[in-house]
Amino acid sequence: MPLQATSGAASYDAFGGGVPVVPQYIEEVFSCFLFTGTGSAQTITNNIDLSTNGGLVWIKPRIADTSNTLYDTARGINKQLSSESDGAESTTTGTLTAFNTNGFSIGTSENASTNGSNNASWTFRKQPKFFDVVTWTGSGANRTIAHNLGSVPACIIVKRRNTFINWQVYHRSLANTEYLVLNDTAAKATGTTRWNSTTPTSTVFSLGTDSSVNASGDTYVAYLFAHDAGGFGLTGTDNVISCGSFTTDASGNATVSLGYEPQWTLQKRTDAAGNWFISDVMRGMTVSAAANLLRPNLSDAESTGGTITPTATGFTVSGYGNGLSIIYIAIRRGPMKVPTVGTSVFAPIARTGTGATAIVTTGFAPDLVTIQGRGGDAAFWFDRLRGFTKRLRSDGTSAETSPTDEMLSMNNTNFVLGTDTSGSVNYSTLTYANWAFRRAPSFFDEVCWIGDGINGRSITHNLNVEPELIIAKQRSVSGDWIVYAKNNGVAQNAQAILNGNKSFGWYGGIFPSPYASSTTFQVASNSVINGSGTTYVAYLFATCAGVSKVGTYTGNGSSQTINCGFTGGARFVLIKRTDSTGDWMVSDSARGIVSGNDPYLELNNTNSEVTGEDWLDTDSTGFVVNEVSGSNANTSSATYIFLAIA
Q: Is 90 exceeded by the pLDDT of residue 121?
């Protein structure tokens, strides 16, 4: 008989004769999606198939006095529970009206439908080794409940549906005689009749006789979460969800290792009273500021709390208080799947400023947005990990700043610009080039760190392949932008600066040998890359088949085709001469990569867009570069690096 993959290990050939195991990715089973109420019914498209697979939708308006509402496919549409209440399930027409193959629909009775309401939604799809939903009718006697989690449940959240009673929470970091209450701030308590003093197994969990979980004739629902169970990624061994605990030190800090970068956490203090709270990267879980928190046990508005900083391998917390014991659920950041089309991870946009709040559509959740004025201005860099509002400029050495009227937010399918009184990104009637990038394996990643002054320090990243182009910048102090290119046509250890036109050369061994790998890159003790106490950011790019190409070429003095392995040509081209001076030139399809003149901007200065040169042409495999006196992008025997995106 065909063999099936077990213990989280996927086998594509099922050991030679079975049914292949289809890889699973976090972006297929979990979504944090922000949306605005319209006053009318609407459909939320988050690409999670709830209709086929089942799951849970949790919605919380980010304003005060509005409930956390939970809907699941086991109970059905319009059946609502509120996590801050001990109340029974209600059935109200027009709340959650459909579980779809690509998201869900809400009617006008859902709190989130209020016109202008800013809302967060978290969708959990049923999937072995991630999440399951189970319902039952109580028996009043000790018993077990079967589940399909495919691993030992690490957290179980239970609610009696038909009458008033508190939510009950089991967590693997507590004893099997202990519990927490989701709709309350209370510390952990002992109750041997909740879980029958029995630890769950990979097939069942146990219930005692307590009425909160198993009163005779009453109805219940449970949400089950896995812990480090594998089951995801190409090999089926990657973890996407962890349930653990930590204790803060004397300064109120802690470091949590997950083995991946999280996008969502649920946390609760267990040794004393304290709120439950949810943080996520869509609402501002960054490296720079206190996280924006929503509280399952309250209907209050979103507010800031302690700092929750995602790292490439977990998260750190600070400002929590001394010696606190805290449990958590953490979910891995996506996407995990290597992109196959450039439009899923990159968007070039040419637009005219409005001087008013503007929503700029990208079609995906942008992680980095670079904006440059076509009439002459710096290229301004904004990204999700540093915090939406924080700005760097690539024409100089200045430290990070935080204008309040430029980048207002980065959402699931767009970014939002403010009134921009300075004229940098959205001033009325001025024209701009916008380049939006999404982090994805083999394409683009971003890492932030605090320098420690140690030479040869390894910085962990999640690009999953060796980075071929690294652009790094000090954030907290002024300093050059430093660029590493694996193949630069000069020397392996040659580096350059983005804020100037110098050739690639030796800049103090900023990226020392062994340079980079599929998991780390090295930095020296030099203050521009790893000075003690200084904050840094690095943007990492690689060649992704059919999506991006990082490469080099030698000029021939006339015209040549640069084959990037694309099928529809390049939509973005960045070129820099490496053996001599040369600007960092950028063209894109939104402004025009055509057979005639092609406008280009220069990331290293504030010059107006150059429009009178036919320096670049289209080719289905990549692009064609021509030698013209202005750009000098194909000078005979000169060497160049490039980043092209399909």
A: yes
